[in-house]
Amino acid sequence: MTLNRLSGVIVAVFGIILLFWIIPRHTETVDYGWLRPATLPKITATIAVISGIIHILFPSGKVDFDAQLAVRAGLFFVISLAGLFLMYYLGFIIAAPLLVMTLMLLIGERRPLWLFAGIVLIPLAMWSSVELLLKRPLP
After folding, report:
1. What is residue 84's DSSP assignment?
2. pLDDT, tens digit, 9 for 90 and up, residues 86-102
3. Domain boundaries, the chain
4. Concatenated DSSP letters for 7-75?
5. 115-131 pLDDT per residue, tens
6. Cβ neighbours of residue 35 under 8 Å, at least 6 residues apart?
């Protein structure tokens, strides 16, 4: 099996784990509202499974393993976990902008307008969409 197909297997398996284990166990069940809490995560997980299967069947391009990029991806993963940890203790309003700022500065973004949009506008839009429009609590 090539690394290209292996990446498709990993994505498909992750989508299946999301669909059958994570989403059902960690999503609140409600009988009100026009959008159930599990709807969008299930759609996204289904797309991941289908995309992974298509990638397994029809791999394209060439995949090379680069240890430096793997370490960088691991660093982003650890920073994201730290952001989730902060979100649990400090709340979304404080932790999300800090997480976005850290990631944007780490990738080298320095343009003030983009930093403002990523650090202030996008977390504010996410918060207002979930809290005000959907009436769902964020941590």
Report:
1. H
2. 999 999 999 999 999 99
3. 1-65, 66-139
4. HHHHHHHHHHHIIIIIHHHHS---S-SSS-TTHHHHHHHHHHHHHHHHHHHS--S-----HHHHHHHHH
5. 999 999 999 999 999 88
6. 134
